[in-house]
Amino acid sequence: MARQAKRNYQFHLTQEELEDVVIHSPLSQKQEAFMQDNESDIIVFGGAKGSGKSQMTLLKMFNAGMFDKDYSAVITMYSQKMIKGAGSLWSTGNKLFTRYGVRSNGLEMNWSFPSGAEIKCHHLLDNQQDFYGFQITHGFVDEAQFTKVDDVWHLITRMRSKSKRKHQLMLTCNPDRNSFLCDWLTRGGYLLESGLPNPDMDGQKVWMIQIGGEFQFFKDRNEITEQFGSEVAGFALRFVFYSANIYDNPWLLKNQPKYVHNLENQKRIDREKNLLGNWYVAEENSGYAKREMFKECPLSDVPLGLPTVRAWDLAATKPSEVNPDPDWTRGVKATYDKADGSFYIMGMDSIRDRSALVQDAIEKAAKQDGREVYVSIPVDSGSAGKTVADQKKARLMKLGHKVVLSSARQSKMKRAEPFLLALQEGKVHVVKGTFSEQDYAEIENFDGAKSNGYHDDIIDAIADAYTTLSSKSLVPTIRIPTDNLSNARRMTGTTLI
């Protein structure tokens, strides 16, 4: 049998030539997980500075655009200045792409690949109309924490290109307590109570769906089927968060040690946020209310036998294209212990809809709470406000409920002042799960101004509940078993009415 000739395994490039070859590749498991994910519908990557978010975004587009003629993508940021700034994705992308035959159009802010693929850069702020007609495969939102949820979600409707690749929305970000992303990651279970990424959920996919304007997250698609049916479950999207920080970027660790040193030696709040990826930390500000002032407790810790009220702050506008973020109708259920001044927030109902449906929600909540719980209705200034409040009161009283009217004529700060003082004195307790991260953010941003860019519906409702309970003589409904009077006293307090 003739001997086979030995194969020549010598590489065709010399070592010197290899040193000039540019290799584009992820350099850590987190970066690779982001690059290789071709299953998720929505990917959130990053959550701390220096993790290589921009480079991975460009590399993922480059890998698709070079070989897929039907590939079409859009890169968006909050503003056009952010897209075109020094070191931005546009300038970095030009350096990466053009050496491989990609044509750049600075006027239109787009790249055309030899394959026929196209990538467009454009700003996102209140700019949904510019994306009408787009047919994209990938939508990338850089620094997504600065954007609005409605603007981001609009990109989902543009994912209809002819490419056979998985159509995906990808969001890179740094932590921001007031961002919609913080709420998404919290609801998805990706954050610990401290605000740091949950290592057990890192890279774990969950199901996300929008129901009635609200985003909900489920561990299993079957949960959606059980609640909403199989047809609705079919519209659910696979969502994933890959948390990454500078320690997941070996290139930066090696080549820019000074940058690493600066991140590691910031003041505590900045270090938690920028280095470790803590979504809940925030700069101390001059606000009147802070999340830390609320003492969270289980429902079982709320005393029995005290007067209870559900106070409403009313609105009557449904979200629309013209007004996508109107005020909420909020109904805060609370009780108050005059013996020690403790105020307990037990729950909150929320709705954004027309007047008739708001009224239905108020009556439904009153029925669920029971007739022993007072209903507080605000009275706006003017005869019309008094008429509306009287009509609501009459309807509720006809149904057998106890109703009190709360004047809304004072300034927002004046109405909230008694509650805020109690909060700062450590007298306010809230049942766990009552408020979301976005709810707390709204409360923290209250400054008494009518239009500071944030809603104040929650504070208004809480303030009315506190004032009603602390300043009015409300009578609790207490049923005492005749066969065990002493035990009832122990359960409901020493004073029975």
UniProtKB/TrEMBL annotation:
Keyword Translocase: no
Boundaries of every Terminase large subunit gp17-like C-terminal domain copy: 311-466
Superkingdom assignment: Bacteria
Keyword annotations: Viral release from host cell
Record-given protein name: Terminase large subunit gp17-like C-terminal domain-containing protein
Lineage of the species this protein comes from: Bacteria, Pseudomonadati, Pseudomonadota, Gammaproteobacteria, Oceanospirillales
